[in-house]
Design a protein that fits this description.
This protein is an alpha/beta fold. It has 2 domains: about 5-270, TIM Barrel, CATH 3.20.20.70; about 310-425, no CATH class. The chain contains 15 helices and 10 strands. The strands form 3 sheets. It has a 6-stranded parallel sheet with strand order 3-4-5-6-7-8. Strand 1 (about 45) and strand 2 form a beta hairpin. Helix 2 (about 85-100) crosses helix 3 (about 115-130). The longest helix has 24 residues, at about 185-205.
């Protein structure tokens, strides 16, 4: 098979792996080596100066010994199969870099023969890139659960970020849809990677000359949402535990797509593609990681699913209407972060600016604060925005109407013959 034919098959097979994330590594160009890594972004993300940083996103092979019900590359599927030799993929990556197509690599793989054999091929490819070609760019690699600790160590030394897919939100669902995999087998390499990252950090603190790199951008994971009946509360509780116990950098949520006919999977004719649910989970995850929210503040067992019409922060604010409206000139920084429409940057600007002067709504606009949602929950110098009263019922109605209007606008912008980002018209 020609090299470009392999690339067409294996880059298409990699589309279900989520990789659009900040690299988390800042490594400048080094004389005699190729490439660099920026902690500002990778794979269709943007650096602070506006550059789009892209990765070659590809599988080493789409041949797999597993037969997971939800996977397009499952063993029982009849589809074109291909496998890169390590040298082929290394040469292809360097060729793409030299043509300025990419600045890094996202590498995953099906399981060819067994986990150790597959991981050996992944590590060999990355060793060629790092040592033969002197490639210094960003590399995100997927580890294969079940491989030996020695291979995990090799991968951690070669890659900037390593991820192990947790696949599904519960052990019961994993046993049902992927019986060849076990939850403990997925968590074990994640524990090993966490410990390796800790050891590397301690070595750096002991001696600046001792610069053994081990997954310097940390580890992440990915789980499928919508293929199994777990609630958003269960998913967010699991995510919080992964952040707390395994110190992951990101938990990625992947909306279930019906790529296989299987009686164990939801019926695509009656099940909506849960892209909107995925979006709300990402918003809730962001609140937990950066805004100080606990899972039980965002969602609870009585209402185990996120509101699909309102973002989680607005839902929380409406449930705590007695706390609002907040005076923008006196609210603590932590409370500023809990105002819908005010993010990390806006809260910081407000906190600094009000030390010099008393802020009004015009001043907030000049600071770059988006008032579309925030205006309902704040006062400036004791007054709400002109023409407004604090009425939680009215505010909720307005926010839902705004969400509906924006959703309809997004659908109107979808070109004929193009799929909407949020699946069907019942998104709203």
């Amino acid at each position: 098979m020609e090299l470009l034919d392999k690339l067409a098959i294996l880059s298409d097979a990699a589309k279900y792996d989520v990789a659009c994330t900040s690299s988390g590594v800042n490594r400048p160009a080094v004389p005699g080596k190729l490439g660099s890594a920026s902690n500002a972004g990778c794979c269709h993300s943007f650096t602070p100066d506006g550059r789009c940083v892209t990765l070659l996103k590809v599988l080493m092979t789409n041949v797999c010994v597993y037969d997971c019900a939800y996977c397009a590359n499952r063993r029982s599927n009849d589809l074109p199969r291909a496998t890169f030799r390590p040298a082929e993929l290394a040469e292809l990556t360097i060729a793409f870099y030299r043509r300025n197509y990419i600045e890094g690599l996202f590498l995953s793989s099906g399981v060819l023969r067994d986990p150790d054999y597959t991981m050996e091929g992944l590590c060999r490819c990355l060793e060629l890139l790092r040592y033969r070609y002197g490639f210094n760019g960003y590399i995100h690699a997927k580890a294969i659960p079940g491989c030996s600790p020695e291979l995990l160590t090799r991968l951690g030394v070669l890659a900037d970020r390593v991820s192990v897919n947790i696949e599904l939100p519960s052990a019961a669902s994993l046993a049902r849809l992927a019986p060849q995999k076990q939850a403990s087998g997925l968590l074990q390499p994640m524990h090993y990677l966490r410990d390796g990252i800790h050891e590397n950090f301690q070595d750096k603190r002991l001696s600046r000359r001792r610069r053994t790199r081990f997954a310097p951008a940390g580890q992440s994971t990915q789980m499928i949402v919508g293929a199994t009946p777990e609630s958003d509360y269960r998913i967010l509780t699991l995510s919080a535990a992964l952040y707390r116990r395994l110190e992951l950098k990101r938990v990625f949520f992947s909306a279930y797509l019906p790529v296989n006919p299987d009686p164990l999977l939801p019926d695509p004719a009656t099940t909506l593609t849960p892209f909107r649910r995925e979006h709300r989970l990402y918003q809730a995850d962001w609140l937990m990681r950066f805004y100080g929210f606990k899972v039980d503040e965002i969602i609870d067992t009585e209402h185990p699913f996120l509101d699909l019409e309102l973002d989680p922060k607005s839902s929380w604010a409406l449930q705590h209407s007695g706390l609002f409206p907040l005076e923008i000139n006196r609210a603590s920084y932590d409370l500023l972060l809990r105002i819908p429409g005010i993010g990390l940057r806006s809260a910081g600007r407000i906190f600094r600016a009000r030390k010099e002067r008393c802020l009004d709504f015009d001043a907030l606009r000049r600071l770059g604060v988006t008032l579309r949602r925030a205006q309902y929950f704040i006062t400036c110098q004791g007054r709400m925005r002109s023409g407004m009263l604090y009425d939680p019922v009215f505010i909720e109605r307005q926010l839902r109407a705004d969400a509906l209007s924006r959703a309809q606008h997004r659908h109107a912008r979808v070109l004929p013959g193009q799929a909407s980002l949020f699946g069907s018209s019942t998104w709203v």
